[in-house]
Amino acid sequence: MATSIRAAAEDGSAPTTAPGGPRTPAAPQRSAWRSRLYRLDLKASPYAYIAPFFLCFAAFGLFPLIWTGWLSLHRVDLLNQDVMDWRGTGNYTRLWETDQFWTALRNTFTIGVISTVPQLLMALGLAHLLNYRMRGRGFLRVAVLAPYATSIAAATLVFVQLFNPDYGMINWLLSMVGIDRTDWYSDTWPSQIAISTIVTWRWTGYNALIYLAAMQAVPKDLYEAASLDGASRWQQFTKVTIPSIRPTILFTVIVSTIGATQLFGEPLLFGGGVGVSGGSAHQYQTLGLYMYELGWPSRQLGRASAVAWTMLLILLLIGAVQTLIARRNRTKLGG
Amino acid sequence: MAVISTAPLRRRLRPGAGDQDKAGPVTYAVLAIAAVVSLFPLYWTFVAASNTGERVAQSPPPMLPSGELWTNITTAWNQADMGKALLNSTVVAGCVSLSTVLFSTLAGFAFAKLRFRGRNALLTLVVATMTIPPQLSVIPLYRIITDLNWGNQLKAVILPSLVAAFGVFFMRQFLLEALPLELIEAARVDGAHSLRIIWHVVLPIARPAMAVLGMLVFVQSWNDFFWPFVVLTQQNPTVQVALSSIGGGSGHDINQAVIMTGALVGTLPLLLIFAVLGKHIVGGITAGAVKS
User: Fold this and answer.
1) B19 vs A132: CB contact, 8 Å cut-off?
2) Does this model's pTM top 0.80?
């Protein structure tokens, strides 16, 4: 590999001839031009290579985000977007007074907690087990990742069947251990648990593999030292593994939080015909769904924008809290 | 700040820290349960797709495949334009992963090996953009697309996804360790300009990471839901948009087996990729591990 690259590099030099332009006196003007070109290349090309990312982000991420903030201060109709009536903070105060907004906020929070906390804990345990030496571990790793290959839409449609209150597999299994029929579609907690199950199913394996990689990077001698000190397996896990992969845990917590805040497809498709309103009583309507319902079916883009910016503010708030907690933990652990 | 390490991609032979321990029966049992829970819904999708709608809507539910698969596929094909949806999803995911891999490699190379003013600040900015949910930008984006008359066209889905901060970071972490600075300097001394260096030095080394990134982006793009759902209609859907229409109705007149067939057809391409390349994808995800 290395030799072929070296050869390629030398091959690349062949047509350009004269290395280090200024040293060839035969063609001073040409070499001056060349050295200027060389310096320009050195200075400017890095910016050229990162430019596509920043241009695309500015055009399709940042600019629309700021525009959303501007829209949130107006009344705008989806079908007549050129007319913008100034409302000031009116959209926000109206949100504050709307029960449905508070329901959506509460649902986003509860579904977020039910779908991420058990998921990350299970992923940690799974990663720990996958780290053992064993037969068939290649297969096991691919198997736990299979749900990741399943789309939100496909996974939700399947779980809608499994959670069907009348003939679904889950109620049938529960009936065998003597648990009565649960209405996973209509009751608040069951429906939120069902939706969280979809999220958990899709992401647990993925997060487990991320943890696994972090665990494999923990220096071996840390474990040896711990076992010399008489630490049990469990103590090694809590005292060595967890602190060592803390940045990874923080990373997955942040990513899952962002994912939970914008939850949309799962509750939409879980609800079938009443999906946009998040169930007939909004029992599982998330902020993402509420934003969509306001913006498209109700055509009120200004109010939808206000929901979007509220989501952004909530994310910033959660991010600040998480950073604070992470920093406090770090000082507590003394590293 | 959290940083992605690509070390495992190159040093996979080094035994992991904990794996001097051999797995006991309990470990096997728990992992077997995890594998069953992960795979069973997929198996059952196939079971339901090969039974009749009436049989699927009976308790206890069917556990074994039956012979109705072809009938259900035909019905699903008539209900939603699955052929077009599969083609559209392939085009979208293909374009998005090609462009993401290309731009990520260029930017990742610049961030990893080139010196320029503001490099660290700009890299931090790239990472920070990952925390902004794309959903919050869709309202003006929808306006832009309608103004351009791009509604219901694939480019409306492709264009906003041409780059990914994750990809830039992934390639940067890989090239940081995999690409020796001496190679670049040697090429420079030989008078090669930077595009030539990229073509002859960077790309050959980056190729395995580019392949992994391409697969990850393809999966993500294939499964993307929100924006395609907003901007496309059933006349020109991606697989996910078509699935939302198959499963979107309510009431008991809907054939549940057909819904499951749609889910099966929409998932099968990715599952096939996973069956063939699963190990590489696992390697790629574990390569995206984070360390401080």
Assistant:
1) yes
2) yes
The contacts of residue A304 (CB under 8 Å, 6+ apart) are A291, A292, A294, A295, A296, B139
Distance in Å, alpha carbon of A187 to nearest chain B alpha carbon: 17
- B218's torsion region: left (phi>0), alpha (psi -120 to 50) or beta? alpha
| CA dist., res. A278 & res. A266, Å (int) | 10
- Between chains, do A273 and B251 touch, taking CB under 8 Å as contact? yes
pLDDT digit string, tens, across residues B121-152: 999 999 888 888 888 899 999 999 999 999 89
CA dist., res. A185 & res. A198, Å (int): 14
Residue in chain B closest to A11 (alpha carbons) equals: B200
At A81, list the tokens: 């977007």
The burial class, CB within 10 Å (0-12 / 13-18 / 19+), for A115 is buried
Q: Which of B5, B189, B286 is nearest residue A19 as measured by Cβ atoms? A: B189
Which residues have a Cβ under 8 Å from the Cβ of A76 and sit 6 or more positions away?
A: A83, A84, A85, A300, A301, A302, A305
Q: Are B225 and A132 in contact (CB < 8 Å)?
A: no
- Domains of chain A (ranges; CATH) run 17-71 (no CATH), 94-333 (1.10.3720.10)
For the stretch A79-94, pLDDT in tens is 988 899 999 999 999 9
Separation of first and last alpha carbons in chain B: 6
Nearest CA in chain B to A160: B247
Please identify, in words, the CATH class of the domain defined by B3-12+80-291: mainly alpha
- The whole-angstrom separation of Cα A159 and Cα B281 is 25
Q: Per the CB < 8 Å rule, is B201 touching A8? A: yes
Q: Which residue of chain B comes nearest to A172, CA vs CA? A: B60
C-alpha to C-alpha distance for B50 and B65, rounded to whole angstroms: 6
Q: Are A151 and B260 inside 8 Å of each other by CB?
A: no
Q: Per the structure block, which two tokens stand in for A94?
A: 């109206």
Q: In terms of CA atoms, which chain A residue is nearest residue B254?
A: A272
Residue in A56, A149, A157 closest to B259 by CB: A157
The alpha carbon dihedral of A280, A283, A286, A287 has a sign of positive
pLDDT over 70 percentage in chain B: 89
Q: Within an 8 Å CB–CB cutoff, is residue A144 touching chain B?
A: yes
A144/B187 Cβ within 8 A: no
Helices (DSSP H) in chain A: which residue ranges?
2-13, 28-57, 63-71, 90-97, 99-130, 137-149, 152-162, 169-176, 188-216, 220-228, 233-236, 242-244, 246-261, 265-270, 287-295, 301-333
Cβ–Cβ under 8 Å, residues B260 and B56: yes
Lowest mean pLDDT among A19-28, A32-41, B27-36, B207-216: A19-28
- How much is the pLDDT for B287? 65
